[in-house]
Amino acid sequence: MRVAMRTSLRMMLMEARDGVPGGLGEALCSLLAAGVYANTLGADFCYDDSRAITSNQDLRPDVPWTRVFYDDFWGTPLSHSGSHKSFRPLCTLSFRLNFALGGLEPWGYHLANVLLHAACTAVYTRLTCTLLPPLPWGILAGLLFAVHPVHTEAVAGVVGRADVGAGLFFLLSLLAYARYCRARDAQPDGEHHHHHNDHHNHHQHHQHQQQHHNNQRHHRTNGVPLPPTGCRDRSPVTEAGTQDGAVPCRERHTNGNAHGSHGNHAGGGLVGGGGGGGGGGGSLRRRRRWWRWAWLGCSVLCAVSSMLWKEQGVTVLAVCAVYDVLVHSRLALGELLPLLYKRGYGAQREGLLALTLGSVLLLGLRLRWMCGGPPSFSGSDNPAADSPDTLTRALTFHYLPAANVALLLCPATLSFDWSMDAVPLVRSLRDPRNVATGLLYLGLAAFLWCILRGLRHRKRAHRDGQPLLHKSKTNGASCSEHGGGSANGGAPPPPSPPPPPPPPPSPPPLTTAAVKNGGRKSNGAAGPEGRRAPRPRSERTLNAAIASLAMLVLPFVPATNLFFYVGFVMAERVLYIPSMGYCLLVAAGARALANAGGAASSSSSSSSAAGAGGAPSPGCGRRRRRLRRVLLGAVTGGLLAVHAARTVHRNRDWASEEALYRAGIATNPAKAWGNLGNVLKSQGKVAEAEHAYRNALHHRGNMADMLYNLGLLLQEENRLNEALYYYKLAIGARPTLASAYLNTGIVLVSQGKASEAQIVFRACADIPDERLKDPQAHMTSVASCLYNLGKVLHEQDLHQEAIEVFNEALKKMPRQFGPQSLYNMMGEAHTRLGRLAEAERWYQESLLSKPDHVPAHLTYAKLLSATNRKVEAERLFLKAIDLDPAKANTYMHYAQFLVEQSRFLEAAGVAEKASQQDSTDFETVFSTAHMCRQAGLNHAAEKYYRQAAQLRPNHSTALMNLGAILHLNGLLEEAENHYLRALRLKPDDSITHSNLQKLRKIMEKQGRPGVVHGGHK
């Protein structure tokens, strides 16, 4: 009874190790992935999000959705020389969907990112649970991927969705290709199952297999397991053979077809017979062939989708090739060359040919879609690429992979941007960072050597008809004969029964060339009673190591500057896909450590006990293994906890741009201080913003953007001379910075230097937009320069020249440029030339482009008034006031219209509303006083004239009018004083002289002495 209970418990443990029922592992890892990023749902748009989302016109419903296939990720046409060439239409379409559902509300964008990461984690866990035993190693890899802090940029930053989406389809493509491999090798016909023509070897092997046919339920295949009809197929990607400690399904063979085909080796794990046995055989073959091509097509389609999320995704085709050759087909290195031409490798060639053709086609189309060559980047984006020294470039580019590996190993220091001097150039061989470079490549070489040794060991084992050695030097793990309880860290199996008499002599070794596709290579020698040794742990670890290295290295190759220069130094979101290989490698290494020395200890203790004549005592070995696994569990648990805490904390940095940039000051001070200055300025913290800009320039003084931003801040503070100084420095640092030219011209106009401003505006208009990082922003500034140049000419009464400049602006303005002001100025220029019909057309165009454009309402209303359409004019004036009731200018235009209609009282009332809105504007206050005087409201007029004189104490006209209204109101002495002040400012003003003479005559009649001043009495 006790034996039965122990056996039942051991079987339950074995089944648990074979898999987690109902996708529980995937669900657990997915929920954890969503949980650690839940605090990003309230975050704002940060950093690159503004350009890719908030200012990207391709997201707007008025732009055709097909534009995403002609513009890059940032909204620049791919055909433009300054395009980033980042073709990611599926990601942009997902942003467009977000915009359609919630506009620019960040919450929906962040929710989509979190859900995508959770889905990616679930699929990744599915993959790792088929390459490693699910409990705990496969799930450990999934948990580590879910919480790794290096993913925060990809998940917390909305732009990182491109990497997450590419990662999801990367995994789906790999899983689909694994299913294709299984369906391909399950073909019952001889199309892909050629046998070696050594008939003698095949005959002996066939007899050997017939001898043990009754025990096929213990048989394991060399490739991916092919469960027979009725067996549950859990894993789309799986090791050859069953999981460690798993009980294999019972194979179903018909008596006549179990070995009837030369291509169907009894150890191949094929389903069904070779070619006969019933009328349904042809239909079964057709169905299997259909599924085979369906899975292959699905894999390529997912690879295309991954590439359309982000270019990095196309590398999945190379990973699939590595999986097919080294993991699924388990070929040795010596078979790679025969794979190209020998007949026995038809199945592998089919898959590899499809992968090769798909890669060539996708890369060709991608290059064709780049429209004119690779992108160009500024020197600050990738300083090493811009370095003229070959040694510096070589040392830096070789060091950068080591820096990226350091981010995976210890993500304590993270940054939103690693450009500029965040990673200083490695300029000499004496730089201590070269040690990290050497360690990386030595470690990689050692890892490759271990894999190559494992491949040679596997080939030798297959050639000799034996499983891999029980004590493998590949990972240090020992393998028991039955992959039972000890395979995954459980209790060892019960003592085996005494071995039966030795079997007949074994047939000659079955070489790897003997059976390639249909008849799979056997996994081990036939044991007692025809049982085959289960797959040893070392081989499973070997396959996991191969897959992890492929997923770690191959997706990272495009970022290494090996084939072309990239526009960044390091980018954490680029590590999203390579981190899949890293997490799998950590889990495989943890499994190797957990199993290291277990069987060796058991074997040594058994030998000692046997030599002493006693029974083996495994207690000491079990205690050591248990202690080692407890320690390993504590370490991995602590690693997961630390990573999760770091991720949650880092997410807080991505909650707002201010927090993000403050966190980045330590790693990239120049970029972080500059961007922080922009944020502080938008918050109205001008002094702090200026301090931030100056700090940025202290760290890197030639940043044109920072020089321009500081100049803009100083201009807004009316420190015009300082602003001009920094604008000139910005232009010197980057002669193509059109916005600096624009604001320089505006400052010069405000200083009354119109001729200098015209030169600057014209210079800006002639700057080409080739190879600029943001050509649309550049052309916006160019169009604005032409608009301002036209205004200057218009104010100089050069209306025809102004119209020509406005027409040039219309030709150069980008599609996101608001043309309403330009149209309105065109209308004003035509009005001045007397072309009223043409002017009206442009006013209407302005209102069509922006129906709430107040200046167009006012100018169009004036035109209607001039053409005696008073009712329509008044309607437009009133609508302008409704659109902008806080703007004094709208009231004043309407008041002037009322004055023209001799409606003086109404005009005075409207003008007083204007002065209430803007009591600091001299023109508004002065005009209000004048209208009140026209309406006979002399005391109100006096109030506003006094206010105007206070605003401009040295304005002679204001003083003269104040004297006149005081004269009318009987305040003669005060009126005389203001007349005299006006004459001191403008001695030859005849009106003031006339008014003063009239005033003194009145004063003489009243017996009041006049004031003697400047010869006037």
Write the layout of secondary structure elements.
Elements: H1 2-18, H2 24-36, H3 49-54, H4 89-102, H5 106-131, H6 134-147, H7 152-156, H8 161-185, H9 199-211, H10 281-309, H11 316-328, H12 346-369, H13 383-386, H14 390-409, H15 433-464, H16 537-553, H17 578-595, H18 598-611, H19 619-653, H20 657-663, H21 669-682, H22 686-699, H23 704-716, H24 720-733, H25 738-750, H26 754-765, H27 775-795, H28 799-812, H29 820-832, H30 836-849, H31 854-866, H32 870-883, H33 888-900, H34 904-917, H35 922-934, H36 938-951, H37 956-968, H38 972-985, H39 990-1005
Helix pairs in contact: 2-5, 2-6, 4-5, 5-6, 5-8, 6-17, 6-19, 8-10, 8-11, 11-12, 11-16, 14-15, 15-16, 16-17, 17-19, 18-19, 20-21, 21-22, 22-23, 23-24, 24-25, 25-26, 25-27, 26-27, 27-28, 27-29, 28-29, 29-30, 29-31, 30-31, 31-32, 31-33, 32-33, 33-34, 33-35, 34-35, 35-36, 36-37, 37-38, 38-39
Q: Please indicate the percent range of residues in DSSP E strands (runs of 2 or more).
A: under 5%
Rounded mean pLDDT score? 78
Which class do the helix and strand fractions yield? mainly alpha
Distance between the termini: 136 Å
Number of helices: 39
Taken from the alpha-carbon principal axes, the silhouette is elongated
Q: What kind of sheet is the major sheet?
A: none
Could you name the ranges where pLDDT drops below 50 across 5 or more consecutive residues? 11-19, 188-279, 467-535, 599-615, 1012-1017
The value of Rg in angstroms is 41 Å
Number of strands: 0
Helical fraction:
55-70%
Pathway: Protein modification; protein glycosylation
Enzyme class: transferase
Protein name: dolichyl-phosphate-mannose--protein mannosyltransferase
Biased composition (Basic and acidic residues): 529-538
